[in-house]
Design brief:
single chain, mainly alpha
Length: 71
């Protein structure tokens, strides 16, 4: 999804999404969204077919405990 789509689902501004994605890039030493996707798969946050299911994103909680490592 693009920033606007994510912001609409989470009821936040597009600028908030941009800032949070940039923060994830810095925190995990990543350069692009594709690397974030790989990280999410490896951490078990998402799985094949996940995006095609109708999931209420507001009910998903993602925090430090979801990542099996610290950088």
């Amino acid at each position: 999804m693009n920033n606007e789509e994510i912001a609409k689902i989470l009821y936040v501004s597009t600028e908030t999404i941009k800032a949070q994605i940039a923060r994830l890039f810095r925190k995990f030493g990543l350069r692009c969204r594709a690397e974030l996707v790989v990280l999410a798969y490896e951490a078990g946050i998402v799985w094949p077919g996940w995006a095609s299911r109708q999931i209420d994103m507001r009910q998903i909680e993602i925090g430090r405990n979801h990542f099996p490592f610290q950088k």
